[in-house]
Specification:
The complex is a heterodimer of chains A (113) and B (112). Chain A is an all-beta fold and 113 residues long. Chain A is 0% helix and 55% strand. Classes of the chains: A mainly beta (113), B mainly beta (112). Chains A and B meet through strand 4, strand 5 and strand 10 of A and strand 5, strand 9 and strand 10 of B.
């Protein structure tokens, strides 16, 4: 298996633009997680899905953030409109269950100017 | 916060020395995990220890768990320059129905 795949790896955009981050989890994993990592706040869980259903989105910072999982092999995290404070590395991870080993993707480094 | 908190925040050692990192948490857990993150990369799982286990080994890694003190330690023996990375503990508060909660990490620097 190729592991968790994220795209794009880097994204530079201007404030106000829409940003869409993509993730393909490991096949057979029922759980998918979206994290954001910054120097100030560390690694924050934004939202996670079980069998394509959002379970906990309490970490999503604002209504500007939305996440979907239309099927077992694809998820998106969308920011609209983007702001400079959204600049961070966004990670997707998947696992067989919520509390077990998580496998992380390489991350998307987002810079909002 | 229910986060695990690592100590120290940063650690610098010489190759061949042992490195010990600690993690404390606040409520009962099902398991505790350690992850490593190399600069600019994603997190990589190192080891998982369950609440009914006290010690676990994996190669040069040794993890202990003391549920009475709500703490865990990660020991890397005979460190190498390639061990330079950030190390995170993550706790599973599954009884609350949540996913893993990560601490802020210990940055380890191993010089040759």
């Amino acid at each position: 298996d190729a592991g968790v795949i994220q795209s794009p790896r880097h994204e530079v955009t201007e404030m106000g633009q829409e940003v869409t981050l993509r993730c393909k989890p490991i096949s057979g994993h029922d759980y998918l997680f979206w994290y954001r990592q910054t120097m100030m706040r560390g690694l924050e869980l934004l939202i996670y899905f079980n069998n394509n259903v959002p379970i906990d989105d309490s970490g999503m910072p604002e209504d500007r953030f939305s996440a979907k999982m239309p099927n077992a092999s694809f998820s998106t995290l969308k920011i609209q409109p983007s702001e400079p404070r959204d600049s961070a590395v966004y990670f997707c991870a998947s696992s067989l269950s919520a509390g077990e080993t998580q496998y992380f993707g390489p991350g998307t480094r987002l810079l909002v100017l | 916060s229910q986060q695990g908190e690592e100590d120290p925040q940063a650690l610098s050692i010489q190759e061949g020395e042992n490195a010990t990192m600690n993690c404390s948490y606040k409520t009962s857990i099902n398991n505790l995990q350690w992850y490593r993150q190399n600069s600019g990369r994603g997190l990589v799982h190192l080891i998982l220890i369950r609440s009914n286990e006290r010690e676990k080994h994996s190669g040069r890694l040794r993890v202990t768990l003391d549920t009475s003190k709500k703490s865990s330690s990660l020991l890397i023996t005979a460190s190498r320059a390639a061990d330079t990375a950030s190390y995170f503990c993550a706790t599973d508060f599954s009884q609350a129905g949540t996913a893993l909660i990560f601490g802020k990490g210990t940055t380890l620097s191993v010089s040759s």
